[in-house]
Amino acid sequence: MNILLLGAPGSGKGTASEKLIKFNGFTQLSTGDLYRAEISNKTELGLKAIEYINAGKYVPDEITIGMVAKFLEKKSDNLLFDGFPRTVGQAAGLDKLLESKGTKLDKVIHFVCDESVLIERLGNRMICPVCKKSYHKINIKPKVNGICDNDGTSLVVRPDDAPDKIKVRLEEYNTLTAPLINIYNNKMVEIDVTNVTPTELYEAVVEGLKL
Ligand code: ADP
Question: Strand (E) positions, the chain?
Fold first, then answer.
């Protein structure tokens, strides 16, 4: 089964993915993580994407679809799409790519959240650059200040989690990604994630997917 986690930045897609990978055997395809790896490896693709990402803007569709096509060459089932598709054009691109592999997107989980909560979460977020686990400076602290519980790596603040970039990212989401809600209506389950803990979030997703 291929699934998509659809939701604004800060809605918990990465947090839910972590457990779905660990306990349910999904392979994550996070275009944000793929881009960050390309940037840290200073590849041509990373250089193309960095300006958009640091400004909080979406990378152009043809670049993102090309990167996903490469990933799907290696694996096209039991995928958890996180942060892709994010535009109507990307949704059409993904349909075509999956069809060519004889597979499809089976279910979409839509995370619904108050915007004030998203801004508060993103503004307090710290992430582990190695295992990608995310923390909250006040509510979900690591055991040792500034250090990842999983692997002891120093936590970082993403450059696009600066307040002015958060605003742009939410605008991009509302304009370009929100239309996907209608497109995926017939395979979508909605979860209100405004007031849930990471464990409650995971349990709601598992129930929504009927795993
Ligand atoms: P978040 O969901 O918190 O915004 P991501 O890690 O998914 O974070 O994405 C970070 C940035 O990477 C986005 O703001 C955008 O610039 C770029 N990006 C990731 N996925 C896509 C995509 N599918 N289309 C265009 N840009 C993308």
Answer: 3-7, 27-30, 79-82, 107-112, 125-127, 134-136, 188-192
Mean pLDDT of all residues in 120-125: 96
Task: Report the distance separating Cα 206 and Cα 211, nearest Å.
Answer: 5
At 84, is the secondary structure helix, strand, or coil?
Answer: coil
Per-residue pLDDT tens for 16-54? 999 999 999 999 999 999 999 999 999 999 999 999 999
Protein residues with CB under 6 Å of any ligand 1 atom: 9, 31-32, 35, 52-53, 56-59, 64, 83-84, 86, 90, 160, 169
Ligand 1, closest atom to CA 122? 3
Residues identified as active-site:
13, 86, 125, 158, 169
Tell me how far the alpha carbon of residue 52 lies from the centroid of ligand 1, in angstroms. 9
- The DSSP bridge partners found for residue 7 are 111
Going along the chain from its start, the domains and CATH numbers come out as 3-181+188-199 (3.40.50.300)
Q: pLDDT category, 80, cuts 50, 70, 90?
A: very high
Cite the DSSP H helix spans in 25-162. Answer: 31-40, 44-55, 61-74, 88-100, 115-123
pTM summary value? 0.94
Residue 30 Cα to ligand 1 midpoint, Å, equals 8
Q: Give residues with Cβ within 8 angstroms of 156, minimum separation 6.
A: 126, 127, 128, 129
Q: What is the spatial distance between Cα 137 and Cα 110, in angstroms, rounded to a whole number?
A: 26
